[in-house]
Amino acid sequence: MKSKFLLLFSIIIAGLIIVGCDTEDPIVPPPPDPLEGELAKVRSATEKYQNMDKTLSDGYEDIDLFAPNQGWHYLNAGLLDEIFDMEKPEILVYAPGPNGGLILVAVEYAVPVTLSPDAPTGFTGEDDVWHINTDFGLWVLHTWVWSDNPDGMFNDTNPLVTQNQLDAELAKVRSATERYQNMDNALSDEYEDIDLFAANQGWHYLNAGLLDEIFDMDKPEILVYAPGSNGGLILVAVEYAVPVALSPNAPEGFTGEDDVWHINTDFGLWVLHTWVWSDNPDGMFNGTNPLVAQNQLEAELAKVRSVTERYKDLNNALADEYEDIELFAPNQGWHYLKAGLLDEIFDLNKPEILVYAPDSNGGLMLVAVEYAVPVNLSPDAPEGFTGEEDVWHINEDFGLWVLHTWVWYDNPDGMFNDTNPRVPTEP
């Protein structure tokens, strides 16, 4: 009887608890903030423009306008109409980022005053206060979706963005030339090796099509490469060049007085080195840089590495018409010849022979390049690298002056020795 009473009591108590719970007000989450949803929509639509290439390909153009505490403005004129479309801002705003180049910091909406006498209706709420830019006759609204702004999402300026125009100009140069850290991009954009090495500067690559009276910071006429820590060439500077014949006076360059141009009398050019890709203790615009190699042989070997690095992949060598001549030499390796290069010219960029040796995985690795000049075209040993270390000899079997250069495999017997004791004597 007692147990039945306890069971009934438990059931009653449980029912009271359930009823009590049912009478409490349910927890209702707050409604979503419509403005936050709109800003998320803007970020989603413009995220791709963190890549400047996407910006340019979608019709945004550099209008060469920098505003302090805002940045560089890129306009898509095709979007200028009376319509506010949050997913299609008329202007993108870039400023210097932590890597020294430009990063997207804001979008800017713009509506011509002639098409909308009153301020456009923009985002939800009262925070987006438009104002008229009288220089351009536009209603404008900055929206800092890509950078924190302590003064507010829609404030016209941002104290966290630089107001130093020179810093912003140098960041713009870095963004415009970053792709040339890959030498292939420089060559495809018509920068040509003019075979000019200058001590404490580097190798100069000229785009002759850019030589005119105009200084355009986005389009340097010359790119400068020097030996890097990997043994090859790295981009260290850009150089602006204006023919003296087209500009008797020094060109107007960067903001301020630091950029002192000088005349290169050999070429008849006003020139200005700008060390955006290498620290220079002597200054951003100094003509030379003490941190860059002044040893020409070292620079020449770095150049060889840069132009032959792709041949570490044997498929690239074969695609470029280097052919296996089925010649293995002890302490050298297998020789691949490009017969089309055999002439009287020594060109360190174009070795006639590539030399491969067995690697630890059973494949082949690039160990050296070999220069070859027919004896019947050059009775005397060719002029090769700077200095006296590159001693050519005649290969009697082939009637060639030859020079091994061990740029890809250390050789205890010397860079230009004919053989390398570290390479096997048998295939």
Protein topology:
Layout: H1 2-22, H2 34-46, H3 52-57, E1 61-67, E2 71-75, E3 91-96, E4 102-112, E5 131-133, E6 138-143, H4 165-177, H5 183-188, E7 192-198, E8 202-206, E9 222-227, E10 233-243, E11 262-264, E12 269-274, H6 296-308, H7 314-319, E13 323-329, E14 333-337, E15 353-358, E16 364-374, E17 393-395, E18 400-405
Antiparallel strand pairs: 1-2, 2-3, 3-4, 4-6, 5-6, 7-8, 8-9, 9-10, 10-12, 11-12, 13-14, 14-15, 15-16, 16-18, 17-18
What would you say this structure looks like, in words?
With 427 residues, the protein is an alpha+beta fold. The chain is built from seven helices and 18 strands. It has three domains: 34-163, no CATH class; 172-294, no CATH class; 306-405, no CATH class. The longest helix has 21 residues, at 2-22. The chain is elongated and about 90 Å long.
What structural keywords apply?
single chain, alpha+beta, six-stranded antiparallel beta sheet, 18% helix
Rg, nearest Å: 33 Å
Q: What order do the SSEs take from the amino end to the carboxyl end, as H and E? A: HHHEEEEEEHHEEEEEEHHEEEEEE
Number of domains: 3
Secondary-structure-based class equals alpha+beta
**Counted beta strands:** 18
Q: Hey, roughly how much beta strand do the residues contain?
A: 25-35%
- N-C termini distance: 100 Å
Question: What's the overall average pLDDT, rounded?
Answer: 93
Helix content: 10-25%
Strand order of the largest sheet: 1-2-3-4-6-5
- Tell me the major beta sheet: 6 strands, antiparallel
Helix count? 7
Shape: elongated
- Low-pLDDT segments, ≥5 res: 1-22
Summarize the structure.
The protein is an alpha+beta fold and 427 residues long. The chain has 3 domains: 130 residues, no CATH class; 123 residues, no CATH class; 100 residues, no CATH class.
